[in-house]
Ubiquinol oxidase subunit 2 (Comamonas kerstersii), 343 residues
Amino acid sequence: MPKSTETRGPFWLAAAALAATLTGCSKAVVLNPAGDIAAQQGDLVVTATLLMLVIIVPVILLTLLFAWKYRQANTEAEYDPEWHHSTTLEMVIWSVPLIIIIVLGTITWISTHKLDPYRPLDRISATQPLNAEVKPLEVQVVSLDWKWLFFYPEQGIATVNELAAPVDRPILFKLTASKTMSAFYVPDLAGMIYTMPGMETQLNAVINKEGTYKGLNSHYNGAGFSGMTFKFLGLNNEGFDAWVQKAKDEGQALDAAKYLELVKPSERNPVTRFSSVQDGLYDRILNMCVEEGKMCMSQMMEIDAKGGAAYMKAAGLNLPQDVCSVENADEVVALLEQRPVQQ
């Protein structure tokens, strides 16, 4: 039974609204971004799609053509039940896809190395070379549950859920996580990069246009995932200096105690600024030893590099008593150096 006009109307309106949502997502930001790395990644997507369409479009057209030409009602269509092979057709069927795969594989291999997130930039944009004297802006990123914490070691400030950078200046992101794995993603800037507790990833990028852009966590990580977003501000040099000064004037100090309060799970946090940061705080977060008296991962690894528990036992140190009896794990390493293993 056909649907009534009243039933079809809302359906088509909903479909049109969904299509508008999918196609009008911020000017198709992936294909029209404001940063050079993201632009190169978008070009790669377009190139790969066009190469694949070289096969897809003819196959679709030929499928429709054969369905029409050899339809049951067309009695004039040539029918040859004895046909079984054509060398020319075989050459076309195998050679064209093979050529496309070779070309696509070559482009992908080159782009994968060129756009490696750990690789320093070799240009600012397609028309602007990189000035070797310009120092990249370092930003240390920590993903929390469910918010983003940004350290600016050069400027001595930190922010929550707000990131800024000067236009046309290389940015070096160093990223880690407090507890839960997340994915740092600014579509206008570059591809996503994971953040993991106890590990550090890197991302090199640049923003080429002034504006306010959306940043988000593109990896589901719990109840507050949908609200784990932040603003990324592309500013001119004067605007960036003013933004830094605003943080220094309005913010508060960020130390280990404040961080331990900040790290508690919370959702949709407002922008927060910190005028100063305790020395070494990011390294303590990375090494998972913000709490007082907790041994850092780097110290554990140094002890392991010297032989670990077996070496300590051979050196006359008891576990875990001797480790727990020293306040600083560096003293454990010093004890190991002072008490060589008895041969």
